[in-house]
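Supplementary Methods. Inverse-folding protocol.

Structures were first reduced to a discrete structure-token string of length 242. This string, shown here, constituted the complete conditioning input.
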């Protein structure tokens, strides 16, 4: 049992629209009609349906997290941030591994792209992908130490650059809040309701456990999009939290 209301919880669920085209995404949106969750547009849908689709989401009043995980030289990220700010997205992200200067460049891009009176998008840093296990971190990526140590280092760097928060696993929320403060936002994918397929995710928790850790937003894809009845799936998730 939590103190969160149904509306609080719903506004903190980001549904990953991981679809190949706008038509498929529209099918899900129709099923979730009237549920005031965020929608997350990632690279698959953005590369296929592009800015037009995002603009149409914004026209219809959706809160949009554009998950394109920018990672390039600072000048290019600055330009990318300017462009997505003009699109009116509410949240977008950049890889913390791109370094402090690159993250600062994203904030400069927002300044350039922001229309007078428009709300500033929130920028969050990607720490370690939730599919990254300890073994992959050490043996393939070549970073020493634990996943949590790597995540905390990235979170501190993102905060030093002026970002509002990070994407991380729900397993790292407590440590991130301890290192960066409670108001530093955590967005957590790697969410699996009890009994759901884990798929390629590695560092996971149930939605209720993630909120109990103090996360600000949960990102949920396949447990909703892959369900026979997506509306019933999100309703069950909301019910499991409030
Ligand atoms: O289907 P599933 O619930 O695993 O979807 C998780 C979503 O969150 C995907 O769209 C994935 O790209 C995204 N994501 C992630 N780990 C990150 C950042 C984003 O899984 N660190």
């Amino acid at each position: 049992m939590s103190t969160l209301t149904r509306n609080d919880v719903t506004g903190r669920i980001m549904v990953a629209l991981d679809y190949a085209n706008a038509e498929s995404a529209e099918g899900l949106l129709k099923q979730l009609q009237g549920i005031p969750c965020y929608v997350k547009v990632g690279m698959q849908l953005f590369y296929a349906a592009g800015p037009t689709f995002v603009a149409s989401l914004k026209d219809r009043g959706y809160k949009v997290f554009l998950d394109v995980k920018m990672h390039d030289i600072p000048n290019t990220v600055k330009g990318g941030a300017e462009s997505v700010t003009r699109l009116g997205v509410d949240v977008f992200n950049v890889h913390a591994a791109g370094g402090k200067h690159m993250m600062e460049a994203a904030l400069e891009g927002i300044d350039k792209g922001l229309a007078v009176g428009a709300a500033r998008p929130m920028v969050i840093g990607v720490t370690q992908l939730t599919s990254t296990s300890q073994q992959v971190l050490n043996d393939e990526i070549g970073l020493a130490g634990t996943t949590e140590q790597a995540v905390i280092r990235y979170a501190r760097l993102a905060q030093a650059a002026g970002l509002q928060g990070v994407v991380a696993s729900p397993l790292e929320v407590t440590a991130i809040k301890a290192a960066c403060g409670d108001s530093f936002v955590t967005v957590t994918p790697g969410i699996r309701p009890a009994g759901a397929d884990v798929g390629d995710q590695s560092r996971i928790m149930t939605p209720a456990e993630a909120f109990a850790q103090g996360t600000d937003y949960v990102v949920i894809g396949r447990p909703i999009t892959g369900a026979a009845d997506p509306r019933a799936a999100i309703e069950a998730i909301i019910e499991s939290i409030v």
